[in-house]
Amino acid sequence: MTSSSQTDKKTPVVLIAGAGLGGLMLGMVLEKAGIEYCIFERALKVKPLGAAMVLGPTILPVFEQLGLMEEFNKIAVPVVSTDIYNDNMKVLGSVKMNNIIETSGFDNMIFARPRLYEMMLKQIPEHKILMGKRVLKMQEKDDQVFIHCSDNTSYNGDIVGGLMEHTHYLSEYVQVTGR
Fold first, then answer.
1. Which among 19, 20, 86, 92 is most buried, taking Cβ atoms within 10 Å?
2. Least confident stretch, 34-43, 106-115, 117-126, 154-163
């Protein structure tokens, strides 16, 4: 049995500015939660760029909750130690990472950033990423948000994510609903 307050709640529509790692992560979480969203990317084509990255116990639980750890482990290897060098490339010391999994449940994992990007991009249905949509402006009016793009198109939703000065809309929704 559902209460009237539960049935009256409308699922929000989230507009995400940017299909970088942050935008894709937000899209993956919203996809899993069944919340409607659309990602607006200014580039005409996705170009996964970058070098090596390390993720660890602060973010890997999210990949586990999304059911992506097995796939993530295919592109990453554990960091067993980190060497520290001076400006003459002389080793000053080394930090061993062999017991981090015992204390946190996860290793620090190193991988090629483009492979992570490609893995994350596969989790987002193609129709939910609009390419060539550079967001120029955001407006709020009558409990709706509007984004205006450089190609003279506009879109409306309930929450905007991805624009640093406007991400509070998403955090306020999460605090209010507990999602």
1. 19
2. 154-163
